[in-house]
Amino acid sequence: SPSAPPSPPRVGLLPSPISALAFLWRSARPLSRTLAAPQLRAMAGLASVSDVEIDSDGVFKYILVRVSRKGGSEHKDIVRGNKTAEFHNNIFEKLTPEMEKLELECKCLGGGKIDHNSKQKKIRVFGISTGFGKADHSISVEKLKSVYNDYEITWSDDTK
Fold it and tell me: Of 8, 32, 93, 95, which is the most exposed, with the fewest CB atoms less than 10 Å away?
């Protein structure tokens, strides 16, 4: 039976492909060893938080919230609003425990109202929160445009 030809001799310092892979495998540090578990959860948590969650139709209260890693500087601003909230604080009180589960903290930057008409593809942001003050509606509108990019979205300082 014919035998396989002998392998050519290895010249220089080039490792075999298998030993090169083994070296890379041993020297690669998994991210989970580099970062502490809470940091990983917080980073994943921040990325998993949607920018906008609002009701599909109607006029309702909304808040602009800054969500950040506990003790960290990384953050993102999010918009939350719904018809069931009697007060702006009702939205914030529901959001906070959800974010705490992700090891994130919340700061309400203000609030107002949203008039959402999904049939006409229009959203109007206006008004003020008595408890939290007026949100920067221009930031809220930018967040809304990132999700409702085929809508006409406007804002004003009107109260009604």
Answer: 8
* Contact by Cβ (8 Å): 136, 79: no
Assign 89 to helix, strand or coil: helix
Q: Phi and psi (nearest 5°) for 64?
A: -105, 125
pTM of the model: 0.73
The pLDDT score that the predictor gives to residue 159 is 82
Whose CA is closest to 116, among 78, 143, 144, 136?
144
Task: Name 39's Cβ contacts closer than 8 Å, sequence gap at least 6.
Answer: 69
pLDDT, tens digit (0-9, with 9 covering 90-100), for 95-115: 999 999 999 999 999 999 999
Helices and strands: H and E segment counts in the chain: 5, 6
